[in-house]
Structure formats: structure tokens, C-alpha cells
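Issue 218. Parser rejects a valid record. Input:
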Amino acid sequence: MAMAIELKSSTKTAFYFQNHQSPIPNTAFPPPSRLRKTAYFSGASFSLRTTGFRTVSAVSERKETPPAEPSAPPVRIVALVGDGSVSPLKCAPWVEVMLHTAQRLQWVDEGFQMLVFTDNLHQSNTVQTLQTELNQADVLVIVAVTKQDSVEWIQANSENIPSIICFDSSPVLVNKLGGSFVHTDTRSDFFGKIPGIFRKETNKSVNEVVKTVSEAWRRRNSDDIRFCILVIINAYIQPVQILKNLRAKGFSTLSCMVSNCSPQILNCLLDPGCRKALQCLNNCSPVDQVCNYRCIASYESPTLEAFSLCVLQKHNCIGLDAEVPEKPHVRPMTRFRGEDLCHETAEDLFIGWLGCRDWSWRVVAGQNPAYDQFPCQYQLFYRGKAKGSFWYEPVFQVKTLEGKVVWRRRRYRVKRGKVEGTFFFSVLDNGVVSNEAWTIVDVCDDLSWGLFHYHGAARVAGQAYSGAVLVSPDGEYPAEKERGRLVSALEECGIKEWEMFTVNNSSCRDPPLGIPDGSSLHKMIEVNDD
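Output the parser choked on:
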């Protein structure tokens, strides 16, 4: 997961510097509104329903330890999707995408409960079901609804819903946030085009929400689709824990920086590359991880690293915090080549093809849109000189903002988890420590492909993340005969195949590979490159 590593550190280091006049972040969202209907489901979860709308709640029915009593009422969301509509996510049906989004919302908070319906409005009993749900909904999400009869039905039955957001749908449909209509002059993917869409009386905080949601939706990936809904919940219904870091911390931030890091700040401002990095970051949305990453990767320098190390890692002047996500819970593989998996064999699986080739694995595809979609990702895993030491070095390619193609490399310390096939990774990257939990989900007996899942966080950067990487010896997708097993492995991670970004491995000349002298490789398995 070469690019994943750089990206995490870079974006995590990035978003702290959002104000154009000072290093204090801008306030991204308004305080959560108390304008909400108190609505409860009969239980903490509910069964998949079969209706004439074909859909249905996607709340997981996995039987686990019952969650603690929620401190806030469940948030009730209804998604209404154009019947037969197709998403841009590898042409997956929109109804499937939204059902998966409903499941992923539950990973954030089990109180976020979303029902998904299609606009097949021909059966009276299913229309009644939808009307009942709309009468209790806090948010209505409309996706790819264009039929005139559906539009008219929605207009007649959604008057009392506090928040309505429309994506890729008829321009006749009206958007509403926190009980107030959002008026626009022009329309496109969500509420209209960003520049000039608001009438003068529109509240500035609404502009921020709309801009953030619009930009996220245009990225067209499952993480950002979920993020759009979370932003609305956070702004108008109740605080969302994973978005707590998107609010400014006030002038205490500036005081901390000046008191503790004046030399590092001055050095950065006097250094052209470091200054460009800060200026670049100020032009990024605080939640646009790809934009933030490209700024850091383009202008990476020891001066910028020293700035981040002081302001963030040593003194946490921004006052951010993040924890490694716990969901989804991903189980490691338990057997390899007919034998129970042990820690040594699991490490050998990471080492992969190194020894026969100059790398352990090449990344074929990844799930995380910010970390896993960049070109030419090589993985190097090896045992160190010290007893019990194990290391991971990702090598990856970056196209800078100035058009240069550069290679980047990082070094992670790897420790075994309690369960065979699980590991803990840590790295100081661009001045910020990242901690990650990795799982070997599956590796084929002939090492023709593997799937690794990760959860991670950079605490002082306020960034938490999850993802998975599909790897192979040559960067090529596994053979069609392996597809069933691969899809099952992805399902174990809570990932659909259409969520994976394919890595561009076409122009990867002269990667800076190699491992330290005295390193060792496999202990338990033999690898033959026939």
C-alpha cells in the first residue's frame, strides 16, 4: 500500500492550515442545529424489508454484543433512488450503492439508520410504506430521480422533512437544510454550481455545508457518498464524532504555535518550498484529502517536516484527536497451504516475492479514494537485523503540482498482533506519527494475489481512515477464475468490488527499491518465480 502510506501522512499533516491570514483552521461547519424531529425505530436494528420498491434497509443483522443505549435518538434517513439507475462507480446500480452506504453509516454510528427505496410507485401498499417512513424521516436523500410522476409524488409527500438533498436528479426538486430551503440560481449535481449559486440572503454557514457536500459528491466514490450524508447530520441533526475535528479551535491555536514553535514557523515562511506548501494547503478544502496530499507531496521538505513535528506532533497546537476505527471488524485468514497460520508464516506472506523479485508485492487496486489510487505502488517487507524486528517500506510515484514525476518512500515499524495474521504498523511521516492495524485477509497458495486490510489514525492530525489493497507480483488483476474467492475476501472487509480503484502501473521506470544490508526474508515458506 505504498501510496496509502504517503497519502495518509501527507493529508493528515495537511489540513491544519486553512486560514489564508493565519495558520488557524477555518470553521468548516455550523454548530449542529436542534431543528430535528424526535424519531425512534422500534429497535436498534431492523430486518431487511421486501416491498414493491424492491428495497429496504441495509442495516446489518449480524448478531453481536448489544450496543450501549444511544445518548441521542437514532437519525432516520430515507434514500429514494431512480428505478434502474446506474452509478458512475463501475456502473454499479445506484440502489446497490446506497444500500452499501446504509451499512457503512452504521460503522460510524449504529444510530444512523437509512432505508433505501426505488421510485417504482405503482403499488399502493409500497407507496404507503414509503409515506410512513417519510413522515418520520430526518433526512431525505434523492438520487437519480428524473421521472415526472416520481418528482410530483416527492413534492407532495416531503413537505415536513427537515433536510432534503438531491443528487443527479430533476432540477424541479427542491433542496432543504435544517428546515430552510436552499435557493439556487443554477443547478448541477447538488444544489447547483458552486460559484454564484446562493442568493444574497443565504447564510454563510449553509454555503460552507453546500460547498463541502458538492465537492465530495463530485469525487464519485463510496467514502465521499457516505461523507455527504454525515456532513448533513453533523450540521443539522446531531454531532458526528468522526467530524469533530472540522471545527476551528480558536486563538489558543495561534498562541500555542507562537509560544512553542516560532523558529520552525519562521523557517517555513522563509523557505520558498515550505511557504508554497502552506499556500497550497490553504486552497484545499479541509476534507479534500487528495488535494492536501498533493500539496505535501509536491513541496515535501525537511523544513515542512520540522514545522509539522513541532506544531502537531510535539505540542498538538491544533487540539485535534483521532482513534483507529474499530469497524468493520475484519478477520484474518487462518490457514495457508493446508497448515494453520502462524506469526512467522504471516510475516512471510507480507514478504511475498521479495528475493525472487526486487519487491514483495505491487498494488493492483485499493479501496480508499485518498490513499490507494495513485500510480506505481511497490511494497517492501523484510526482517531487520535486530531480533524480532520487521519493517515495511512503501515506494510509490507522485505527479507533483508542478508536473514533475517523483518517487517517495517511507519506513514503517511492524509489530505482531495477538492474533496470527494481524499486525500493528507505526511511522513518523512528515513530522506526524501514524498508527495502523493491518490484517492479512487472504493470500493465494501460489502467491498470485493477496488482500490486506488496514485501519489507521494520525491522532494529532485528527485523521482516521480505513481501506484495503489488492496486491499481486506484477501489478496485474487476478485471473477470472479467482474472482469468486476475491469477492468473498472483499466482503469480509465490508468492501464491494466496484469500490476498488485500479492503480496505474504502466509507467514505473527505475523505482528506488532495495532493502538494508543484513536484512533477512522468508523463514517458513518457499517462493519460486517459475
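Fixed in the parser; the record now loads. The CA atoms of residues 144 and 169 lie 5 Å apart.
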